């Protein structure tokens, strides 16, 4: 998957992963993909809801070694 930008939000607690994701998605073009790495377990539901409310598409999410990874396609 082609990724335009990778955001490291590891170690940040709510609401910072969302705040940082919102800023990062503003730095890429429509149709491009943002990859987000987070360790806050709340980020899973938060980022899913945020992407949906913003019209963005959550392409995939995984978890490995306690790191949540999300791929969000900008609307």
Describe the structure.
α1 links the parallel β1 and β2. 28% of the residues lie in helices and 35% in strands. By secondary structure, the chain is α+β, with helices and mostly antiparallel strands. The chain is globular.
Sequence-ordered SSE layout with sheet pairings:
Layout: E1 5-9, H1 16-25, E2 33-38, H2 43-53, E3 57-64, E4 67-73
Parallel strand pairs: 1-2
Antiparallel strand pairs: 2-4, 3-4
Give a short synopsis of this structure:
With 75 residues, the protein is α+β, with helices and mostly antiparallel strands. It contains two helices and four strands; from the N terminus they run βαβαββ.
β content, as a range? 25-35%
Main sheet record: 4 strands, mixed
Q: Rounded to an integer, what's the Rg over CA atoms? A: 11 Å
Q: Using the coordinates above, name the CATH class.
A: Alpha Beta
What distance separates the N and C termini? 17 Å
CATH topology: Translation Initiation Factor IF3
- Please state the second-level CATH architecture: 2-Layer Sandwich
Q: In terms of per-residue confidence, which ranges show pLDDT below 50 for 5 or more consecutive residues?
A: none
- Reading side by side through the largest sheet, how are the strands ordered? 1-2-4-3
Total domain count: 1
DSSP strand tally: 4
Structural class label: alpha+beta
Q: What is the CATH superfamily?
A: TusA-like domain
Q: Could you report the average pLDDT, rounded to the nearest whole number?
A: 97
């Amino acid at each position: 998957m082609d990724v335009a930008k990778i955001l490291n939000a590891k170690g940040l607690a709510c609401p910072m992963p969302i705040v940082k994701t919102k800023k990062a998605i503003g730095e890429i073009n429509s149709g491009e993909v943002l990859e987000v790495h987070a360790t806050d377990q709340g980020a899973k539901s938060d980022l899913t809801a945020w992407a949906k409310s913003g019209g963005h598409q959550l392409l995939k999410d995984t978890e490995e070694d306690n790191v949540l990874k999300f791929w969000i396609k900008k609307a």
